[in-house]
Structures are given as C-alpha cells and as structure tokens.
Design goal:
It contains 16 helices and 14 strands. By secondary structure, it is an alpha/beta fold. It has two domains: 12-374, Divalent-metal-dependent TIM barrel enzymes (TIM Barrel), CATH 3.20.20; 377-421, no CATH class. The protein is globular and about 80 Å long. Bound molecules: D-xylulose (XUL) and cobalt (II) ion.
Length: 450
C-alpha cells in the first residue's frame, strides 16, 4: 500500500513538554474531563476541500502546495486522494470527515458523468470507512462554483438552475445514506444578491425554503434523515448573503417552520465577518436550542475576508468551548477544521502540523473551559449580576404578577437605584489565569468591598 507519509507515525499524546512536532501536547484522547473523554468532547473532523484540494492559489499567484497524490488522470488522482485522506485521518487520530460532492470526484462533461464518478469514489470511501472505523460527519453539495450558479442555486432567477441544484441535493442525500452521515450541510454559497434593482428577495428566500422542504421529504422517503444544518455567513461570495448570521438564519428557520429538522453549523471566521465573536454566535444558537455543529478556524481581523486559518488562538477557543460545554456538547455535530494552510506552508507535512496545532488548541481550550465550569467562575458572576430578579420586585416581575401600572407605583417609591459595578477588568484578569496559567490553583472572584 502506498503511504503518503512514510516517515510519520501515528500522532500520539506526549504531554506539554514534548519537543516532537508530530505529537500532541494537550490532546489526550482518553483523558477524562468533566466525566467524558477528550475524544468524546472533541469530535474532530477534517475538511476534504482544504486538506485534499486546496493548492495555495491566490488572486496574485498560482499553485504553491507540493502534493504527492497526482496520478495520470483525474479519476486516478481522486482515488489517490481517498487513500491519502484516510492516512491523514488515521495518523492524526481524527474520527470524522466532511466533504462537498465536487471535492471527491471529477465533474466530467455532464451531470450523469459526475454522478457516476461520485458512485465510484464513494464506494472507495465506504471501503476505507469500514476498514478504519472513521465516520462521515457531514457532506454537502457545492452549488456555487459551477458557472451555472452565478446567480445562486435555489435562489437563482432561473428555474432550470433550481432543478440542477435539486438534483445535486438528491445525490448528496443518497450519498449521506450510503456513508451513514449524521448531518447534511447547506452553506448558502451564492444564495444572496448583488443589488435589489433586479432581485425579488422574498421570492428567492421562499425558493430556498422550497428546496429545504424537498430535502426533508426526500430524507424521509429514503429512510435516512440527517440532521440538516445551515451554515451562516454574512458576505463572500455574494455581497448580501441571506444567511447573514445565527440570528438571521434562525428567523429564516422559524419563518418557514423548519425548526424540527434544521440546526446551525457555525464557523468562527464567518462570525467575525458578521461583526460578532464566535462565542456570540454559539450563544445565540444555544438560546434557540439550535447549536448543531461547528466549523473550526479563525480569521484575521486586519483583513476583511474569510482567511480560514487553523485555530491557534487559545483565548477565543476557550470561550467557544465554554459555550459548547454549556450546550452539553454538540450532539450529532462535531468540530470540523474548515481551515487551510497558508500559501507558504506548502509541504505535505504542513497538513499534519496545522491540524495538530488546531487540535491542541481545542484541547487546551477544553481544559480551560472545564476549569471555568468546575469552579463556576462565569456562572457565579452571572448569578450575582441578575440577583435582583431573585427576590422582591424582580421575582414578582418574573412571576408575571406586575404590569405597567403596578411597576409605575413601585418606581415612584423607589427612584434611587444603586447599580452594582461589574468589575469587568478584574474579571478579565482572572479569566487570563484560566486561559494561560497551569491551573494549579483555584481562581476565585473575591469580594471587592469587605
Ligand atoms: C465557505 C465555507 C464552506 C462550507 C461548506 O466559507 O465555510 O466551505 O463550510 O460548504
Ligand atoms: Co465552513
């Protein structure tokens, strides 16, 4: 059997003092944290499109990545990629993967040829899954790269394009069934618009919902209904993307009554593009019981676009992991590295090193978030902050016993409110200890005024 990484063994946990670049310093799959193993807390997945397809091209220059899986034909390369992908997954001890239809198989000269190629490659993927026990977290259809999707897919002004998109979704669901994928993702791609001068916004959104409802029915028909996930993103490639952020997407889900079948797949870099933190998006989803899965990466706040960097910012990842712990985990979802190596990290080994960095950052983030949770650090702060709702007038408001008249009477008697300080700078300095210290001591909020 060909190996694409003959000199690298399985990446194992060696602890924080390890100097081996191909070892985990924080990710110890069997370590128990808050009653679950790290492996259970962190269902990592690798994204086919970045790891196997991305070649380093940017608008100013061509291919930089050195890859050893190119064969004599497109289909041979596609087959080699499957071998290499499963070697990467196995060596990194990653149990899940995600892909777009166009990532895995050549599109050929017709839809029929494309579908046939997909059958060949998914047979191979299934073999590798059976051999390794690695699972498909989600698949999706790429309905944005082909020229026909210039004006969107389900939201296209052209009904022929809607039909082509529907065919790809049907095939995607057949593949989800074949590979037993627990989730199916819809990222909006070009479901958005350039200008209202020629766009019927309400009609386009009705059509997106029509396609989603067809997907639900087809899943029922074939006896494989994955958890459907919408992945919000505010812009890029469209100027106005319909699924702007978690809140906008929840409004869409509720407007069309899709709550029972749809949750959100939230991506860190999409959150920051929308002007939010990642933890904000996770918290909004949580408040609707709709946190489905995450795309792990990070953006660059100095740049205005989707840079899809591997997540290495422990601060942000800690706060994201805290939201995930508060959610009781990700259920059927996982942590998909929708991340790509930088153009200058062009060697085969960089694919492993980048994932190791991301995985260790999440493991460290999990340990930090677990310590925050164990010591009730943030929950105590919130408990205290809303304390006025526990007794007296606050409690009476919550119990529905008050109205505008009774509250006016109360307010006229009590117009001398004294607000408690948030001491937020003190809180942030303690948070630094959770994030950057070795956790050897208890980090407790102390009363400021004795
Ligand atoms: C694009 C993006 C996609 C989705 C899947 O920004 O994140 O790769 O995750 O289509
Ligand atoms: Co994504």
């Amino acid at each position: 059997m060909t190996t694409y990484y003959p000199t690298v063994n399985k990446v194992e946990f060696e602890g924080r003092t390890s100097t081996n670049p191909f070892a985990y310093r924080y990710y110890n799959p069997d370590q128990v944290v808050l009653g679950k193993t790290m492996k259970e807390h962190l269902p990592f997945a690798i994204a086919y499109w970045h790891t196997m397809i991305q070649d380093g091209t940017d608008p100013f220059g061509g291919v930089t990545n050195k890859r050893t899986w190119f064969g004599n034909s497109e289909i041979e390369t596609a087959k080699n990629r499957v071998e290499a992908f499963f070697e990467i997954l196995s060596k990194l001890q990653v149990s899940y993967f995600c892909f777009h239809d166009v990532d895995i198989a050549p599109q050929g000269n017709s839809l029929e040829e494309f579908f046939n190629n997909l059958d060949v490659i998914t047979d191979l993927i299934k073999e590798k899954m059976d051999e390794t026990g690695i699972k498909c977290l989600w698949n999706t259809a790429n309905m944005f790269s082909h020229a026909r999707f210039n004006n969107g897919a389900a939201s296209s002004n052209n009904a022929e394009v809607f039909a082509l998109a529907a065919a790809q979704v049907k095939k995607g669901l057949d593949i989800a069934k074949k590979l037993n994928a627990e989730n199916y993702v819809f990222w909006g791609g070009r479901e958005g618009y350039e200008t209202l001068l020629n766009t019927d916004l309400a009609f386009e959104q009705d059509n997106i919902a029509r396609l989603f409802k067809m997907a639900i029915s087809y899943g029922e028909e074939i006896g494989h209904k994955p958890q459907f996930l919408i992945e919000p993103k505010p812009k890029e490639p469209s100027k106005h993307q319909y699924d702007f952020d978690a809140a906008t997407t929840m409004a869409f889900i509720q407007k069309y009554g899709l709550e029972g079948d749809f949750k959100l797949n939230l991506e860190a870099n999409h959150a920051t593009l929308a002007g939010h933190t990642f933890e904000h998006e996770l918290c909004v989803a949580r408040s609707y019981n709709a946190l489905g899965s995450i795309d792990a990466n990070q953006g660059d706040l100095l740049l205005g676009w989707d840079t899809d960097e591997f997540p290495t910012n422990v601060y942000d990842v800690t706060l994201a992991m805290y939201e995930i712990l508060e959610n009781g985990g990700l259920g059927k979802g996982g942590i998909n590295f929708d991340s790509k190596v930088r153009r200058s990290s062009h060697e085969m080994e960089d694919l492993l090193l980048a994932h190791i960095a991301g995985i260790d950052t999440f493991a460290r983030g999990l340990l930090n978030a677990a310590k925050i949770k164990e010591e009730s650090f943030l929950s105590d702060i919130k408990e205290e902050r809303y304390a006025t709702y526990k007794t007296g007038i606050g409690r009476s408001i919550l119990e529905g016993k008050e109205d505008l008249k009774s509250l006016t009477e109360y307010a006229l008697e009590h117009d001398d409110v004294e607000l408690a300080s948030s001491h937020i700078e003190y809180v942030k300095s303690l948070l630094n200890d959770y994030i950057y210290s070795d956790h050897s001591n208890t980090i407790k909020v102390q009363p400021i005024r004795k």
